[in-house]
Amino acid sequence: ERMHRRRGYQHKYALEDTWAFSVDLVILAMVFWVGSGLWLWWELKVTRLWGTVCLGIGIGLFALFLSTI
Amino acid sequence: MTFNHFNRRLHLYLAIGLLPWFLMYGISAIPFTRNEFFRNLYNDGVPQWTVRFDREYHRDIPETGDLRTVAREVLKDVGLEIKGGFGVNRNRQRLNIYLFTFWSSTRVTYRIDRHRLVAEDRRFRFDQFLTGLHARGGFQQDAFLNDAWAVLVDLVCIGFLVWIASGIYMWWQLPQTRRWGFLALGSGVLSFILFLVFL
After folding, report:
1. What is the value of pTM for the model shown?
2. Residue of A nearest to B130 (CA)
3. Pair (B62, B102) in one structural domain
4. Shortest CA distance to B21 belongs to which of A44, A66, A6?
5. Which of B7, B10, B19 to mutate to test the interface with A (most CBs of A within 10 A)?
6. Across residues A36-61, what is the average pLDDT?
C-alpha cells in the first residue's frame, strides 16, 4: 500500500522526483494504451461486434455506478 | 480455437469491457501526484464546506457497540439518505459521520455533550471526484451496487494480471520484437528494483 500511495515532486531528493516522473509516465502510457488499443481493435473487423457489446456493457455499468453510488 | 487465438481474444475483450476502469485509474492518479497544484487551484475563497443545517438533537450514543447502526439511525432521524456509502467514527463527545457518493460528500457532526448536530456539504472539486473514484472499494457498505463496484474493482485487479501475462505471451509470439522487448522489460524491471532498494 505504501508503494501505491507514494507521491512525488514535493520531496527533497532527485530519486523521489524520478519516482513521481515514472508514475506520470505510467499515467500517459495507460491513456495511450486505451487509445492505441481501441485503434488496434477497430482494425480487426471480425471482433467489432463483440467488442462493441463489451464496450457498451462496460460503459453502461460504469455510468450506472456513477449515477447511483 | 487455439490457445493463441483464445489468449488474444481474452486480452482484447477483457480490455474493452474494463476500459472505463482502466482509463479512470490512469487519469485519476493525476490529482494524487499533483496534490499541491489542485489544492492551490481550489484555494479561491469559496468555502470547502457549507452548512446544510445546524440543529438540536438528542440521542444517546453508547460507548461500545456497532457505530454503523447508530449512524444509520441518526441519518434516518434527520432525513439524510444513504445513496453511496458512509463512514463513522467517534472521538470522545463527537460522533462523525461521512456520507458520500462519487459526486458529493456530506459530513454530519453530532456533539453528544451539547446535543447539537451539524450537517455540512462539501463543494464539488474535480480532483476529489477523481480521487474518490480511484479510492472507492471494499465490501463494507450496505447497498448491493457498492458490493458490485467492489467486485468490478477485483475484476480489474485480475484484469491487470491477465493483460500482463497474455501480453507477454503475445509478445513472445513475435520473434522480431524479442530483442527490443527484452531491453524494454529489462530497463523497466531494473529501474523498479532501484526504486525499491533506494526509496
Report:
1. 0.89
2. A66
3. yes
4. A66
5. B19
6. 97
